[in-house]
Design a protein that fits this description.
Chain lengths: 153, 153, 153, 153, 153, 153
Amino acid sequence: MKTAIFPGSFDPITKGHESIVKRAAPLFDKIIVAIGDNSSKNRLFDLEKRIEWIKKTFKNEPNIEVMTYKGLTVDFCKEQKANYILRGLRSAIDFEYEQPIAQMNKNLNHNVESFFLITDPEYSAISSTIVKEIHKHGGNISPFIPEGINLDK
Amino acid sequence: MKTAIFPGSFDPITKGHESIVKRAAPLFDKIIVAIGDNSSKNRLFDLEKRIEWIKKTFKNEPNIEVMTYKGLTVDFCKEQKANYILRGLRSAIDFEYEQPIAQMNKNLNHNVESFFLITDPEYSAISSTIVKEIHKHGGNISPFIPEGINLDK
Amino acid sequence: MKTAIFPGSFDPITKGHESIVKRAAPLFDKIIVAIGDNSSKNRLFDLEKRIEWIKKTFKNEPNIEVMTYKGLTVDFCKEQKANYILRGLRSAIDFEYEQPIAQMNKNLNHNVESFFLITDPEYSAISSTIVKEIHKHGGNISPFIPEGINLDK
Amino acid sequence: MKTAIFPGSFDPITKGHESIVKRAAPLFDKIIVAIGDNSSKNRLFDLEKRIEWIKKTFKNEPNIEVMTYKGLTVDFCKEQKANYILRGLRSAIDFEYEQPIAQMNKNLNHNVESFFLITDPEYSAISSTIVKEIHKHGGNISPFIPEGINLDK
Amino acid sequence: MKTAIFPGSFDPITKGHESIVKRAAPLFDKIIVAIGDNSSKNRLFDLEKRIEWIKKTFKNEPNIEVMTYKGLTVDFCKEQKANYILRGLRSAIDFEYEQPIAQMNKNLNHNVESFFLITDPEYSAISSTIVKEIHKHGGNISPFIPEGINLDK
Amino acid sequence: MKTAIFPGSFDPITKGHESIVKRAAPLFDKIIVAIGDNSSKNRLFDLEKRIEWIKKTFKNEPNIEVMTYKGLTVDFCKEQKANYILRGLRSAIDFEYEQPIAQMNKNLNHNVESFFLITDPEYSAISSTIVKEIHKHGGNISPFIPEGINLDK
């Protein structure tokens, strides 16, 4: 059973996240969208909301699950018998951020490999941070988040 | 059957290539190391030599094959019923080179997804180009190419 | 009437900002130096001071104005009938930061185009952040801010 | 009269070039698409073909012209009384390539400013080089070049 | 006497820091590992601990000292009659961060030159930030910090 | 005796090269400006001219010499009992180019360390390649090459 973890804070989930997971889905038996529940960081949206939106996004995808975890991603991988971490790369700066994390994760747990997809161009400008900023200032964020998600309720 | 193409010129194969393929091997049913036989580009080593060295490198890996191809990588993918392209990323500049290629390949053939592994640190400085340069000037390239390969015969 | 918005926090204005606006001035009928008044972010200098310094910097430039705004930059553009956003690029990392913002702004308001100038070399190391850091530690910041500006009063 | 030069080899013109010029057109009185006729570089397509395709692309844009030039771009600017150079930026690596050129051009002719637009995401993977590569191998390049252009005749 | 300052927060010291200082040691008469004691920034580890760990790391290196300083690094250089600043570069993003700092330091004090070493590959993924994150979540950080250092006491 | 090699093709030497060597000169007992005489690469200027111009540039610097070498830079270092390689970094892309070379050189000869200076901003746009391009098209390159050098004789 080939299981991948797709870790993040998903504050909120974007069309970029949705696209990466759906593109990778055929390659794995299971993908766990894993919300890192790091209490020390401020999130805009409640954990419950974030879980709900991810579930809604993938409700028609039987092999995609949502979970939360605390602690190191590689420890959560071991717990879930997942040998793969899945991540998207939008730009060179994303690469620079991901490279040391992937190398440290490999160092901490040699059984876990990180695989990357390059974001499709139409989603490469989307980040949770920019979406939140637009939302906070009253802009229309519906083109940037999965269909059917309403951040206001 | 999940088949990945690992395309390149492998002039010559390096420990970096070897590492990427071996790390990815558990995720795929078959990986085809595919030498792009582009007659217009000058290669230092004969195609025959390059094939032989790759075969030797993976002789104990039953699900890794070597093939050559002409034309577009995505057309070779279709021919081989391969839905995945595998590539390594050593640095931000590699990312910048690979990003448009991956996006164009997706555009040309929507059934093909490119997956990337980030090179392990000990191999991140190795490239066929640098290996050739060192070899040409009489330096010892054995730390940079797979064990058992001798570029001089 | 071709109006450009030059948005920023200008905390404080630097010679880099001054240079970008003056270089772009001949191309536009009006440039509005627009201070984003985002109450949630901590600024070192009062809004009043920041406005005063910008006014002083461009006091001899009849087509350069200073304004403050809240909310999205693209909404302020619409309000001011400005079809252009002007930004400076000092480095690849600036580009990586500006690219998704420009693309999102275009997406939010198709009538607004962002134009970029590359910072002149002598100003490429200057940022408000570094200027503040030097000022806080008692260093001489006068080479980095417009002539006639005194941050201490 | 505000005239911009959009210099390049346009071997061939792509949808990326077309998009940059059309987005910039409202800001300038005239944009000259200027083919650098550097005899020492090998081009795939004849100069005549390249001119014809650009003319066809902008046939409905009265303020966009096509010209060829030899020598330095800044000298051609002076000859055409153009105070602006227009360029597109697709990625950080484009920025790194354009930065020294823009700074040197400014140094050689202080009256010329280079303005940059960031490529729209849907065109950011397109380059003449990749288009040529795909064309050479028999791939379908029509999604990447302006409508109505046929590279084979 | 050729003295270099190796400034940082060392929160905590890593094998990456250790390697840079030891590689540079033969070139200088003295290297001062200088902890910037900036009270406004939150550090995870006490200043005393950080000093102790650095001393332990270099206890066999007679020409390497540990000091703390407040204020600008270039002012501390002057105070210590040090004409050199030493820094490590792990990646392009490190370069982008260090470039304006080095240029500003040169501007503030023309007698100080910053010299850079590129981090050895095996340490290029290590940063104090990642080490702290792993430590906080109960991971084993001993492969990433100098031998003999125990962060828990 | 602390000797550094400053390797390059110097086709031609620029003010950027001159600046790096002069800034580094106080740290070393001797700096050898070393022209890699790689017969397979096309150079615009004769080796004799290039040597002459470098000699002229540093004629008042007693500890700076000019030499030519064939083969690997690290082998030339050994021959000259030089434990240091000196290089300048203008940009992130320079870093990306230099990083694997420095790491490979260290791997080939553990006694050689590469030290880097970041180019002063006023020289960061200058490269031999751009200088040649401007020269070829009849532009004035005197601001970019050392004083007293005349490329035409």
